[in-house]
Amino acid sequence: MNTLDAKDIRLLSLLQKNDQYTALELSEKLGMSASQIGRRRQRLEAEGYIDSFACRLNPDKLGLGVQAFIQIQTESQTGETHQSVMALVRTHPEIIAAWTLTGDADYIFRVYCTDLAALNHLVQKVLLPHPSIGRVQSQIVMEQMKDDTALPLPHPGGT
Q: What is the per-residue burial (b if ≥16 Cβ within 10 Å, else e) of 33-54?
């Protein structure tokens, strides 16, 4: 793994906040030429520090008024169960993220639904009847206090 210098860290930090910055805007913020910014950005992409760029949509504008986290306990922990849960996740777009966990829950899903009735439908008609799922526990998000896209970046030269 290559070492990131202070300008790399600052560039990554700025790109996490707004990936639409132009090379000229970034050059003004970092005190470098636009061509230097372009080369650095290409290198950071080539080295895998930048995975991708994404368009973030406003859930409220799209009528997705309910965000929730749903913990899932499965009936058994087998490869077949895991494949079944993965298929479920892939076929329901309201499940926008899913993780496997240690502890009481086997999975946690992050979901967006239009309203409480849609969330109830997802839980009652999709998740609970699923043959691999034993227990479902949901938590509705009241307020998102911090954006979840920016990673903590290391200090230049530090670990």
A: eeebbeebbeebeeeebbeeee
